[in-house]
Prior knowledge:
The protein is mainly β.
Amino acid sequence: MLADSVAWRDTPGAFWRGLRTVALDGTTLQVPDAPANKATFGTRKAKGGGENGYPLLRLLVLVETGTRAVLGAVFGPFCEGETAYASSLFGHLRAGMLLLADRGFDGWELMKAIQAEGADFLIRSRLARTPLVLRRGYVGLPKTSTNASARNLHSHAPAARRVLPVRLRLRPPAGQDRRGEHHRGAFPLE
């Protein structure tokens, strides 16, 4: 473990409704163009088939919101996606935590793994994802499951979850108009 939770109950931005909030996200870093780095991290391919730029490593970090304390981190070759590294950080999750993540982590396998650690989650969902609505829940929120084709292929599909439609007010960089952009978040039904 790199660090542990350090926030107190009154630390601004560290808790929501009694749950310690943590965030998961990834980035890429250029590493020196050395033979050992090329062998470890590989290189990106150019359109013509050659190498393109410096080798990249993918870094994924789990942090406590409010304090930005690092709870865990993992890195490896760029060719592996963020979701391939995510499960190695789930051991840092525990009951009483709310994991916040972007739409790159909205796969049901990851959601099920998060729930197995006892943590709750709020994950932004892709708009293209069409959840199967099982029934309308309280305040009109739909109780959903994975899409029908995924449920037919995988008998171990996750428990039902709620999908919350939201419209965010964003402050984008100058020149971009993202007002009224629609988003969806998925969270468990405990």
